[in-house]
Amino acid sequence: MCRWIAYRGVPVFLEDYLTKPDHSLIHQSLHAEEAKTETNGDGFGLGWYGERDEPGVYHEILPAWNDCNLKSLAAQIKSSLFFAHVRASTGTATSRANCHPFSSGRWMFMHNGQIGQYRKVRRALESLLDDEHYAQRQGSTDSELLFLLALQQGLSSCPVTAFETVLGFAKAAMKERDITSPLRFTSCLSDGRRLFGFRCSSDGHAPSLYYRSYDNGDVVLVSEPLDRNIECWSEVPQDHAICFAGDKVILRPLMMC
Fold it and tell me: Per-residue pLDDT tens for 187-215?
């Protein structure tokens, strides 16, 4: 399973969270503690909002710990909202097109999890995409496919409802094919202002998700805590979505898993 981090708050350099903490995302790429695999070396990606409405993204297939560009970029890019993701493939190719985060317009998305036996349902789920959204498909992952389906379902209206609907499609396709492997979905989404986190699974064992809020309003949403101050981190409950909007933190149940 992958590891990722999302930050929303006052502008900071990416290195403050990607490389400097004791259990930074780069450290997790080699030494994950709450994932099925300790190593996440199938590429990485950055996404950040700057002066424009649409985010910038950077993808690389090298392991995060082995790319000299990443440390330099993290030391120079400053942002008030950014994503970073280290990938452990669940079966699709290691390519830039398959690295997270994915973006479309002002939206950015990244994921940790899987559709059980994805190869058996991929064609059925891709057939649900209209021509406009199918044309945006760059890679072959289930993560990108879920994102595009959610865009089609109306992320702008209600992101949580859109993903509830899409995960319902995935569950139905799996049921039709008697797939018993779980659907697991721990993900992050942003439109450049709000930050959303999702944690659910069909078997009650969703990948981990934590957040930490600071006194000044900054928030970090992560697969694993970045330090050993465990008491400072809150776990997002199983089968819930969380939204950080303005100074509000909204937690609500998810109905699809």
Answer: 999 999 999 999 999 999 999 999 999 98
Tell me the residue ranges of DSSP E strands in the chain.
3-13, 44-48, 56-60, 78-86, 102-104, 107-114, 184-190, 195-201, 210-213, 219-222, 234-235, 240-245, 248-253
The pair of three-digit structure tokens given for residue 197, joined into one six-digit string: 């986190």
CATH number, domain containing residue 81: 3.60.20.10
Helices vs. strands in the chain: H and E counts, helices first:
7, 13
pLDDT in tens, 154-172: 998 899 999 999 999 999 9
Q: Which domain holds residue 148?
A: 3-253
Which amino acid, residue 17?
A: Y
**The pTM is what?**
0.94
For residue 175, the surrounding DSSP H or E stretch is: helix 159-176
| Chain centre to alpha carbon of residue 55 | 15
The count of structural domains within the chain is 1
The answer to whether the beta carbons of residues 109 and 189 sit under 8 Å apart is yes
Cα gap 99→76, rounded to integer Å: 22
Q: Which two tokens stand for residue 219?
A: 């928030």
Residues 6+ apart with CB under 8 A from 170: 115, 121, 125, 146, 183
